[in-house]
Amino acid sequence: MTARILTFGNEKGGAGKSTVAMHVAVQLLHQGLRVAFIDLDLRQRTLARFFSNRLTWARAHGVDIPHAAEPFLADKPASLLNLPEAEAKKIFDRALDETVQTADFVIIDTPGGDHVLSRRAHAAAHVIVTPMNDSFIDFDLLGEVDPVTLDVKRPSIYAETVWNSRKQRVRWDGRSIDWIVLRNRLAATEARNRKRVDERVMALGKRVGFRVLAGLRDRVIYRELFPFGLTVQDLSTEVRPVAVSLAHVSARQELRALMLSLGLEVAEDKAAVVLAEPVLVKAGS
């Protein structure tokens, strides 16, 4: 089988890329699928630290939970930031080639900024998932609005990045990239502001070609389980580092709804998953 590549991208930090990426990865693992990840946030390494915590916690407590694989990038991943672009791309290409040969899904987390490796990961994706907060501050990376009418004037910098990635991908193998914008961390209040942002996001989506889906709410349990490298999907009689409540049931339902909307919730038989063909990323291209 060949891997399907999911790139989680947004050039603004704090939108929830790593949170969504780790939960999607664990949900896939619990479906019996082979998952690999590449953390390109080379300084913060939130996704890599989550899976490191997961392995340490499981070993310390003698429990059996599924794990994701990480290809080798460098002894000190942050050192890739100082390499010439061509060399950095070769390292990423090698790591990606390794993962697509051994995994069903590859999860790539990108930094909150522009970098050659982030652009490379966007172009290699089958699906780009862009979480955004319920705010015109986050929307500003997708599109510019008129300060008087709030009408969408034009796509903004990150939308251009995705557009360029789509063009690069077509040159590589003639395939398109599915772009999904997740309305993440929706507030329970400020309904007027949410409605305004919703309308602009939907209008821009029709213009530049992305789908809009509901993401994750800002729940304490998502943050509470991070130090253990766990998600609510892991909780059981053997895995229970925190007290279980009805809020955890709601969080599980929310995660399953997200997976269904992303088309990633599958039957127990993993052969039912329809996987795309491998991405051919040529060094130096």
Layout of helices and strands, plus pairs?
Blueprint lengths: L3 E5 L8 H14 L4 E5 L6 H16 L23 H18 L2 E5 L6 H9 L2 E6 L3 H4 L3 E3 L6 E4 L1 H17 L4 E6 L7 H18 L2 E4 L5 H5 L21 H17 L23
Parallel strand pairs: 1-3, 1-4, 2-3, 4-7, 7-8
Antiparallel strand pairs: 5-6
Helix pairs in contact: 1-2, 4-6
What is the share of helical residues? 40-55%
Query: What is the radius of gyration computed over CA atoms, rounded to a whole number of angstroms?
Result: 19 Å
Order of helices and strands: EHEHHEHEHEEHEHEHH
Strand order of the largest sheet: 2-3-1-4-7-8
Distance between the termini: 25 Å
Beta-strand percentage range? 5-15%
Count of DSSP strands: 8
Number of helices: 9
Query: What integer is the average pLDDT?
Result: 87
Largest sheet data: 6 strands, parallel
Low-confidence parts lasting 5 or more residues at pLDDT below 50?
267-284
Large-scale geometry: globular
The secondary-structure class comes to alpha/beta
